[in-house]
Amino acid sequence: MDSTILAILLQDGVVNGAIYALLALSLVLVFAVTRVIYVAQGEFVAYGALTYAALDGGHLPGSVALLGVLGLAGCAAGLWQARGRLDRPAVLRLLGETIVLPAVIAVAAIILAPMKPGVLVEVLLTLAIVTPMSPLLYRIAFQPLADAPVLVLLIAAVALHLTLTGLGLVFFGPEGFRAPAFSDITITAGPLMIPGQALWIGGLTFALMTALFAFFERSLTGKALRATAVNRLGARLVGIPTERAGLIAFALAGFIGALSGVLIVPLTTVYYDSGFMIGLRGFTAAIIGGLGSYPGAVLAALLVGVAESFSSFWASAFKEVIVFTAIIPVLLWRSLRHGPAEEEE
Question: In terms of residue numbers, what domain contains 246?
């Protein structure tokens, strides 16, 4: 292997690792706040990619109808869970979040989709369509199980992943899609040809990680989320609405997933079930990073991306095996270091 091939493999690994870093951050965020291992996070990558591709083609994406269905289900779930203790402001807020907001987004999509309004508007509309699905799913699937053991939450997350994969086939079809890149420029740096989309991925990933750091360190809402992650019961006792914290965490995860899909669809063909393998790589990075450390998750994601890139060069038929089995020595080392943990009450 000469230096040119080495540089190209490192470039591909860093670009892929940046996407996995976003997914790993969202997984760590959701787990820290709600104890949910968000297996379905990869589906938001696929939904974001396919929604953006449909808008670029001038078609109304199927995710708009799915958002409406989830809004109705989320409204019904919210009314049922809070029955007997709802006041007028709470009802109006629930209706605004589950009925009015999806309706406004749907109307905007119906008007703008045939017009092909351009990359920026299509990206923003994609984020507006896909992001609210995640907190709606939290209302439907996880909020009723907020006090359940982690294993029960994991089973619910796996069931949600399978459901979203099936719904993706229904609303998007079996065909794969690609969409145009944000920029057609290409920068030459020695032997490397760096496409503009790779620069967008790196820049947006860095900007989002910086924004998340500032959010958790400087804002009152971010500090409330951190308090909920440290001690859910203690946060509730001091007046932090833990249910609202869960909604915010899932909304951020949905935004990150949709943004990741928009970033990768110009580089590879995305199918309705492509999100599982992408999300699994992010999950691998989150596990290696400790499922509780944001810097660890980012570093592990970059290592996963580089390992995948070199595995594709040396043994392409086994690249998934090589990447995913990296979890095993990490888990063995942690089990030997920390010993058995007490079973959750």
Answer: 3-178+188-338
